[in-house]
Target: VWFD domain-containing protein
Amino acid sequence: YVCSTWGNNHFKTFDGDIYQFPGICEYNFASDCRESYKEFSVHIQRALNSNNHPQIQYILIKIKDVTVYLRPKLAVVDGRIVKTPYYSSGLLIESNDIYTKVYAKLGLILIWNQEDALMVELDSKFNNHTCGLCGDYNGVPIYDEFIKGAESYNSITYGNLQKISKPGDRCEDPDETRALPSCTEHRDECERLLTSPAFADCRLRLNLEMYIQGCMQDKCACGGSQDSFCLCSTISEYSRQCSHAGGRPGEWRTPNFC
Model:
């Protein structure tokens, strides 16, 4: 099962909820949250790049007692910069110009495109044991991440709860009253893009509806601008996840699109 974040602050939990959260602090992305010994944690921090697009600045991973800090084109293990491929007990880090990948023998695979998109795949032994922006991984996709007892949260309140407080932090929490309105326009266009012949091999591998929702949110948020990051990032994510699921997406970019 895969949890991912991409593009315009989209998140897809292990259980398949899709939401947006525009925070720029450090957050718990996915961690083992059992009371006793925690096997892993993954924290992320985003910021806006020079084009005003959200980008992941760094990823902080703890695997048992080893700490891995990733930035674009940089891997640091327990405080030392390492060359990749790096291999040590139960941990492999690979990177090239396009991706950084971390494989941990305990049942975690992390793939980052060194820009906006990160995915974490976990072994099913962590079912019901995780917390963070990726949710509880209990197999129930009905936003139970956002319900606690009798209270329900919106996605921004939920995201703010995952913040890792650090002394001297200067990041503002996103305003909870400004949760993004759901978007009902552009369905036909998004459906057409995601069901084009290039994605024929993806249809049965992924839940198409989630990506249609993400694409619609992007179209609404872009407000008609032809900004390719805004319009294309969910389609790139669909293509990436299709490949990851064993599919073979065709060439969907054209000279006039993305």
